[in-house]
Amino acid sequence: MEERYSKAETIALRRKHIGPSCKVFFAKDPLKIVRAQGQYMFDEKGEKYLDCINNVAHVGHSHPYVIKAATKQMELLNTNSRFLHDNLVQYAQRLTATLPEKLSVCYFVNSGSEANDLALRLARQYHGHQDVITLENAYHGHVTSLIDISPYKFNQLGKDSKKEFVHVAPSPDIYRGKYREDHPDPASAYAEEVKKIIEEAQKNGRKIAAFIAESMQSCGGQVIPPVGYFQKVAEYVRAAGGVFIADEVQVGFGRVGKHFWAFQLQGEDFVPDIVTMGKPIGNGHPMSCVVTTREIAEGFGASGLEYFNTFGGNPVSCAIGLAVLEVIEKEDLQGNATRVGNYLLELLAEQKEKHPLVGDIRGVGLFVGVDLVKDQQKRTPATAEALHLIYKLKEHHILLSADGPHRNILKFKPPMCFTMEDAKHVVETIDALLTEMEEATGMKTENNASTNAQCKRKTTEGSPQPEGANESIGHMNGAACRQENGLYSKKRSVPSKRIRT
User: What is the DSSP letter of 465?
Assistant: First the structure.
């Protein structure tokens, strides 16, 4: 492919014309990507990189079926949703068929931020309440209304940046949070924190409009809520006149494997009131959606304001959305997420046992986090080490990112066509790089004394954990303890029941 500009010229023009707050990956030596296919991206020199982070190119970069659907419709018509068109209603029908029955009304928009902003409007109109409960380290979008409810962003603005109508609940993180993996019922404990927030708000004369949470926190550090947490939170929020918004922008459309939506990991008895979706919905095409109940939609319409979105639900976007759903089904990408995700978790669990820098492995399907630590007992975040590792991986043509409140969590959220060979290649490279880092810093590659101490403490103090849904999901810190106590055979796969409640 012929370039218009050299890489140096592209960088110079970007600095001149693009806002300085718009950052690039690998700022010290940014990549210039000129094409992509499947799970691979290619730079201007033709060098191939394995993409482990792009959850937007959900069914694979430049998927021919999606491209064909877009091109075919664009040749015929693209207009707004004030005209009747079959693509709009067909897509709404197909999309809502993946959701619980009561979630039946769609509003099509153009980005995850637009979707979450509209979800707040729906929630506030429903009962006339204004206050929002959000989670620590949450990120829900870049528009003003969402920066207000995103501690991941507003905490960077200073201690007085939180608005009076915003209430922040503890992240349901059982590795770093207030209630950890040895707690007998972390789901209830974290939900009680939300209940206390509601009660305190009501004492101050405030009214809760919504609780909003990513079904699994992404920017917050690949956090998977314990099963039962959403059910209890929804009970408390609805009793206060609020609604539950499940943000699936990062994690929806089969990424978790067995289920199409990540909120379904909580169990069949949990159904949110509003679901927002974006990123993977169009495989790179700018589109998104809000799905809610008939009751909430009618309440929104009762305001008398028409809702119109110029590009939302246009025929081209809907054709692309339909194509994405068809590819997920035809290529069994949910099944692939389960198979490859389980294998990736298994390989990473072995690294946890081998490397003292690895504190926790957590994930489900192709949504996986590796929590790097300087000390496994103290769980001290290894921020500098994580940054060093992702730059070294880039040198090996593997693209991975680090995120979370301490920027020490390696985030896996690759295109859904990611293979077992890809997983093996990435983990083998991580293994070699961690070994180099540990040898260079004098860290011991064997951590038996620390591990034995942890095992003893868990055995004597820990309470047995009830098992949840049949998923390969959850936290794998302590894998060495379980192996030493005889709970794993030498040859094993990732346990099938790992959600702790």
Answer: P
Q: Is the dihedral of CA 192, 197, 200, 202 positive or negative?
A: negative
* Chain Cα centroid distance, residue 261: 11
| pTM flag (> 0.90) | no
Give CA–CA dist 55/5, Å, rounded. 28
Mean pLDDT of 466-493: 37
Closest CA to 362 of 378, 381, 341, 377: 341
The token pair that represents 20 in the structure block:
């300085």
Q: Nearest 5 degrees, angle CA 356-CA 411-CA 166?
A: 110
Spacing of C-alpha 484 from chain mean position = 32
Expressed in percent and rounded to 5, the helix, strand and coil fractions of the chain are 40, 15, 45
Length of the chain: 501
Angle at the Cα of 36 from the Cα atoms of 35 and 37, rounded to 5 degrees: 140
Percentage of residues in the chain having pLDDT higher than 90: 84
CA 425/CA 435 separation, integer angstroms: 16
One-character DSSP codes across 157-206: G-TT-S-TTEEEEPP--TTTSSS-TTSS-HHHHHHHHHHHHHHHHHHTT-
Q: What pLDDT band is residue 3 in, cutting at 50, 70 and 90? A: confident
Q: Would you say 314 and 288 are in contact if contact means Cβ atoms under 8 Å apart? A: no
Mean pLDDT of the chain: 89
- The sheet carrying 274-277 orders its strands as 105-109, 288-292, 274-277, 243-247, 208-214, 131-135, 166-169
What is the Cα–Cα distance from 389 to 152, expressed in whole angstroms? 23
The secondary structure element, H or E, covering residue 333 is: helix 333-354
Q: Are the CB atoms for 274 and 292 separated by under 8 Å?
A: yes
With a cut of 70, say whether residue 79 has pLDDT above it: yes
